[in-house]
Structures are given as C-alpha cells and as structure tokens.
Amino acid sequence: MMLNIAIEKSKKPLHLKISNRNALHKTIRDENGDFYTGLWKDGKKHGFGTQEWTKDQVSYKGSWEDGRRHGEGILYRANTLSEFVCKGEWKKDRRNGQGINCYEDGGRYEGEWKKDKRNGYGQMDYGDGSTYIGPWKRDQRSGFGKMWYSDGATYEGYWDNDMRHGEEKGDKYDGFWENDLKHGEGKYNIKENGLEFTGLWINNDFCCGVLEVENPAAPGPMKLQIPKVINTQTN
C-alpha cells in the first residue's frame, strides 16, 4: 500500500500529514511532539502500537481499540522500557481487570482494577514497608483484609472507606473498630510491659473493664477493675 506523505518545514515540531488514514502501520508525530507507531483502522489507533507522551514523560506499549488503550498493555517511564509505571488490562483508556501499578514512593499494587481504580482483591505494598492484602472498592480498602504495619503490628479484620471498622483479630488488639478507632468490646495486649486491657472501648479510649498486670509476688497476674467513666464535658 502506497502512502502519500508530506513533510512540513517550520520552527514547530516536525509532524507528518498522512493522506491515507486507513494505513495498516505508520508513525505519527503530532503538534505536541507526541509519537505513535503502530496499527490503525478508520483513522484511529487500533491494534498493537506504541504511544509516547513527551509532556508526561511516559509511553504506552500495547493494544488499542478505536483510538483508546484497550486490552493488554504496559505504561513505561520516559526513555526506558525496563521501568514500568503500570501494566495489565485496559478498557476504554482506563485500567480494568488484572494489573500492577508502581508508585513514586516505592509502593506497588497488584490485583484487580475497575475504571482506573483499585477495585476487587489485591495486594498493596506501601512505600513505608507496610502491606495490605484484601478487597478494595473504588481505590479504598473495603471488606475483610489483613494489614502488616512497618512497626510490626498487624490488623486482620474489616475495613470501610479505607479505615478499620468492625471486628479485628490481631497480635495486639482483639476487638471491634469503628472509623479506624477502637470502639466496642475488645482486648488490648501491650507486650513491652505485659499490660492487658479487656473491656469497653470508645473512640480509641479504654472506657471500663479489667486491667491485668504482672504480679511478681504472686504466680498469676493482678486484676484491677476499672469503673466506667463517662465524659460529660461539652465544648
């Protein structure tokens, strides 16, 4: 198939005029300096191709449909095909299905996506060394999942709107959460000094119950009853 290509000479970035918009394979540089090399159909990117965005300093290599990323593909950082930003499945120019995303702070997510957001089951390794494995909903932790914190603490329980919420079974605290705060019946163990709080928690504060402390003069722990304290002070 013959192409009629004209090259314009000006101070602007070089771009090509393609008279045959149904060419099977071609390279185009637009007025923004962005490049596309690959397959076309009906004047749109369609099939396998590579797009380079100079302003954003990223490039995409993979499948296209009707001018949008669709199917398997990889998004790379500028000037390298070894350091990827994300790779996986795309639908109508957005990540959809299984995929991996790498973040600038060193974090990494691998799992399910929907409409360019983490959605479904996946693992998130955070830049600070923490890890979460469990379900996501619209880019937020949601449902029953487990979190390993960088300080060694763990949380295994329910999440809502990216916050701990509901019942939890962990190394230090075993009880209920609400809006990322200890709230309801629970038991809290402090390994450093052997203290154990068992009772009612309200907004992350121990309200009432039993405090167990190590008793060097007796074979078992000392149990202290903590009365219920209600803060009636108003602002």
Automatic annotation (TrEMBL):
Task: State the coiled-coil residue ranges.
Answer: none
Look up the signal peptide feature and give its range.
none
* Chief location bin: cytoplasm
* Subcellular location field: Cytoplasmic vesicle, Secretory vesicle, Acrosome
| InterPro entries in UniProt | MORN, MORN3
Q: Name one Pfam family in it.
A: MORN
Keyword annotations from UniProtKB, A to Z: Cytoplasmic vesicle, Repeat
Q: Does the keyword Repeat apply?
A: yes
Q: Which GO terms describe its cellular component?
A: acrosomal vesicle
The entry's function note states: Assembles a suppression complex (suppresome) by tethering SIRT1 and MDM2 to regulate composite modifications of p53/TP53. Confers both deacetylation-mediated functional inactivation, by SIRT1, and ubiquitination-dependent degradation, by MDM2, of p53/TP53, promoting a proliferative and cell survival behaviors. May play a role in the regulation of spermatogenesis.
Q: What is this protein called?
A: MORN repeat-containing protein 3
